[in-house]
Write a structure and sequence with these properties.
heterotrimer; B: two-stranded antiparallel sheet; 72% helix; C: 4-stranded antiparallel beta sheet; 11 helices; binds adenosine-5'-diphosphate; binds magnesium ion
Amino acid sequence: MKFDIEMLLKNDVRIVVSTFVGISFLFIIVAMILGLDFNGTVNTIQRIMFLSAVYAMVVLALNLQWGYAGIFNIGVAGFMLSGVYTMAIITGDPNGLIPGLGLPLPIGIVGGVLVSGLLGLLISIPTLKLKADYLAIVTIGFAEIIRYTANALTFKTFSIAGVEMGTGAGRGIHLPMNPIRGLYYIDPSNMGLGKTIVGEYIFGFFEIVQVQSSVVVSWTYAIVLIFIVGLFYVVTYRIGNSPFGRVLKAIREDELVANALGKNTDIYKMKVFAIGCGLMGLAGILWQGSYGYTNPTTFQPILTFYIFIALIIGGSGSNTGSVIGGVVFASLLFEGPNFVRRVIMHVFKFDKAPNSIIEAMIPISSLDFEPFISYSLANISSLRVVFLGLVLVYIIQNRPDGLLGDRKELAASIDISRRPVTETREGKEA
Amino acid sequence: MCAYSIGMIRYYNILREKVQKDRGTAIVFLSIVILLLDLVFRLIIGKNESQVVATYLWDGLVVGLAIGLAGVGLSLTYSILKFANFAHGDMITAGGFSGWVAVFAVAGVGKFDMKNLLLVGAGKPINVTELGISVSTTPVIILFGLVAAIVGTILLTLFIDRFVFRPMRHHNDGITLLIASIGIALALRYGLAFVFKTQNRGLTAASLTASYSVPVGTGSVQIDLGEITLVLVAIALMVSVHVFLQYSTLGKAMRAMADNRDLALITGIPTEKVVRATWIIGGALTGAAGFLITLERGTISFQFGWILLLFIFAAVIIGGIGSVYGAIAGGLVIGLTSTISLIWIPADLANVAVFSVMILVLLYKPEGLFKGVTTA
Amino acid sequence: MSSSKVKRKLSGRKKSAKKYPLKVEKIGKKFGGISAVNNVSFSVEKGSITGLIGPNGAGKSTTFDLITGVTSSDTGVVKFNGEDITRKRPYQIANIGLVRTFQITRELKEMTVMENVMLAPKNQMGEQLSNVLLSKGRKRVESQEEEMLEKAWETLDIFHLDKLANEYAGNLSGGQRKLLEMARVMMMDPSMILLDEPMAGVNPTLKNQIITLIKKLSKKGYTFLLVEHDMDVVMNHCNPIIVMHNGGVILEGTPSEISTNERVIDAYLGGSE
Ligand SMILES: Nc1ncnc2c1ncn2[C@@H]1O[C@H](COP(=O)(O)OP(=O)(O)O)[C@@H](O)[C@H]1O
Ligand SMILES: [Mg+2]
């Protein structure tokens, strides 16, 4: 019985690992076609892995709310923003242009997660009785309030009880140095001061295969993130595969029944709001934290929709599906089109794209597709979103369970699909 | 005199009962009264306040009617098809573009490259002063654009309904349809970006548009013809929709379906026909809104409808979903909140104020502020 | 005050909470001006199988909703084991041992039959996040779940659902859904069970088995309030029987009193409107 769960888990781990490997392989081929050197290839894979890991995390968090409890929160971007900004304000230099509290990074991260979690809790309480579509509008409105507040000149700098701090308004805000650099450099903010012993060895090793030290640093961070995805998975798996998760599923199916069966559904919803939003805040921190800088524009509602598309592709209600959905979305749907463009441009070497779509389409009448293709490639960033939208419509119409959602992931800490072997049926029926 | 005071007492009692039953409204009411008193106070002591307030009122009215007009279509589909259409904002954008394609093509024929005119200047920026479109100088072309916007948007909504929503008619939870509408929103918005490019561009020649100065107190308020057109056409359209819903057979069937879909099905109302009528009327108003809003602003971008969407939702919710006058009233609340609130808060927090009002209404008065006052 | 009212009041006082765990006093509910339940009072004796009958629309299901907190009543008081539960939430009422099934079944469709059943037990350690997340607590959660699982299989056996344990509840037939509803509440260790037409759509053999089960449980001290349309079942196995009509109780008595009463016959035959 124990054995079965481990089997299932192994099976799932295999699915996830083979997805990661398969996608890496695909991008290695792409890099080869593009004629990238080893350093470029390694860097490409790193970028894909990084984004995949970020999406996997936030999709897992959303799955807890929507996949399990059926809570239609479309304010994800806002809760990510609140995490990142809180972290930035807590850790910011008190004497900087946009002053912060100057506290250490771990406090900033914990603070960011707590603030996002508390905001989630705050919005959950008055919305407990709301219909799903109203909840959607409240959450997206709330997220926009958060974003407009971060964007408002009024709060560029402000002071609470005499302590100066600020959001930086539309110009954005600086984030602390990625601590990963501390592993390699004596002074993370000043490479000139030399490398640590680890830095000497690892950079030295990768120099042999001609991988730049900056790529090594980013790869290290990507690996850390993949590891954290594992932690997210363990947390959400434990929550989902338990009596707690069972109540969440029951709330999704029919809240009144869960209540009539003795479960205080309000409390469950509040908890899952708080935890999910806290995890979204953490995912936001880990994502933006690597860029050293963030701004409100990053957290527009479309980000939330991307995350929903990823979840729906993977199969809402399934943790493994969430990870797969995050990876597939980030690598194939989000980054993929750019690579398609690069590959086609590289192989066919088109002329400059025409200025407008009509000029691009006129030659089609003489069966010359090149201008249209090159126009499409030049505008691939728009075309990509069109494609994402159509994918969403297609899936919701034809495969609402997603890639893995039709599997039964039973909400229990033990295998409840099979009868314990200790009991003999014959004995009972006799 | 005596009858009057009895009436007052009765009125007072009714009011008291209502307040006891409905704390939410009471609090809203009270806050509005306090703010109004403060406003009056400011008007009395301030010098330029009356001009500022009058400008805010006029701007709020224009923005509010635009949002209200844009909201009627959303309100209709929300109440009859039972889902929040997140593609509505981008349908407005599509309406705007289809109107301006027609206007540019007619106004610029012979003077400019037709390929570029049909893309509203996507290939190469068009000098709008040279093109010379304005309500004052080319009213017929503008009217033609309005018709084109309406027709274009109707065709678009029917197309979307046929391929996206009709196959999903059996879903009776609004969320599945809502998610599909998010997909359409993305595809539509970036489809428009693909065709018309992403830059913001001018449409009308501001110098040609007649503008009037209305004296208020010591100063004056500027009112231009674009704004007046929006206000008049919006009111005319909304009144006609109201008349249609109230008195025509089809309109009555639509209201019946909004009230109780199952009952409407049983009583033999041709639901597919009603659904199509809903999209046609909704689409027409949406297209008109898209065109009039861009006409008033004088510019268009591929995102403008989407950016408006949450404000439109706010208006529809505040007014009570399914009510035409509610959408107008809600739009006016939103429009006036976004301008009048500037008296108390900085401009960059006006949106925060609007969305906060929307959330508070959803939480404490989800049936809307004006439900019960008017229907349909 | 009329004498009959006084009498009813006295008799109400005599009924001790120990002997009569459920007491409903003058509850009422209007839906948009229409009285679904009006001034309904009755008590249910411990260990009894009390029948609640009446034509469609009489207000039986609404009475259940009012008792279990699913709908809040406009007037009146509901007491369970002496405790006022009128304004309590459904989960609180369920947790003190008063549970119900729904006439229109409310199975959790995209959960398996086993998940449905395993949801029900009270005080599950695994409903606490700290236990679920930490390895130490998880061990205890697992061992408690193993115990519950054993009981769940036994319960599924009783209701002949064992073969369907891994089926999604949404795929069950109407009769099977009724059985699942009962199986679910049985997992809650209740002391009193309200059953809303539990045997509609259930095949006759199984129906008899369910009746046998109910009788067995009532002998053990479980109390039942049963809404049922099958008059054979009601007349043979319920005592007393409460008759509702147009939102009010028109009679309470033994099966023989009920079957000969003119008003009851009128209510059923005369049409309710
Ligand atoms: N939620 C509700 N809204 C409006 N009317 C209701 C509602 N629930 C029940 N009713 C009405 O209350 C009356 C009693 O219904 P019900 O309690 O279901 O009767 P029974 O279970 O005895 O058949 C019926 O007229 C029914 O239409
Ligand atoms: Mg009933």
